[in-house]
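Handoff note, outgoing to incoming analyst
You'll be picking up this chain. Sequence as last confirmed:
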Amino acid sequence: MGTTDDTSSFPRIGLMLPYEGAVSATGIIDAARAAESAGLESVWVGDHIAFPVEMNSINPTTPTGKYPFPLDNPRLEAFTALAFVAGATSKIRLGVNACVIPYRNPMVLGKVVSTLDHLSGGRVIFGATLGWCREEFEALGVEFGNRRQRLQEGIEVLRLLWEKEQPSYKGETFSFEAVHMRPKPRSSPMPIFFGGHSRPALRRAATLGDGWLAVRLPPEELREHVEFLCEQREQSPRAGQPFTVTTNFPARVGTSRADGADLSDREETACALKELGNAGANLVIVVITSHDPEEVTEAAKILGSISNEELT
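Most recent structure output, in case you need it:
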């Protein structure tokens, strides 16, 4: 499974930008430019609006059920951050991993994303997810219980807005008469990657999406999920269309006290990335778990060097 131009088990490399933690304009731009100069495929940000002070929700993508970073970390808004990065770069792709569709108005979201893609020259990779933090939904005044319906309809609305002239829609959670919404995204169609590890989430990615976003999976688990995705994709109306399997890779550089693989061990890093590629990953998003901008910038240089060695 994957895009048809894959010629190696060594995956393409993306980098999570320092969009949370010690956030700064200089830090996020330096990291993005370093990633672009190093020849990495893409840079990414996550998406959360506001975490509660006291959280009881279970995060289904981590073994502990907890969000892996401090809840009180500063966090940049995803699309504002990517627009800022777009203006300081020229070719690297811009991804969100992943946008919580159900607590947004899809028409506003469609306008934001199409504007970003239009102005960036078609560089957006749009990650979509269901959302898991009930308290965040409640803080935003959005019902948590019907989020699956809102996700389904939200994706339908987004595709209509991005691909059709004078789109209209009538659903249970969203409805509108014919509208003008231009400019359209430069990417046609806009690639939509879905997150989630459950069987319904995998089925959703395979049948509705252009890719899947995995979180912190070891190669053996990733391989099992990819096999299921392949089965579902072959049975879907989108069978035969390109599909990208993406996973993230927690990492650090040198003696950093953060968790993750040590990128300064170049041989071990290359082996770990190859294992993920052999398990089915077409794209690996490296996440520097300290979120330190200087460490992220250094990671970009190391990863670019490793990729160049592996692919030449």
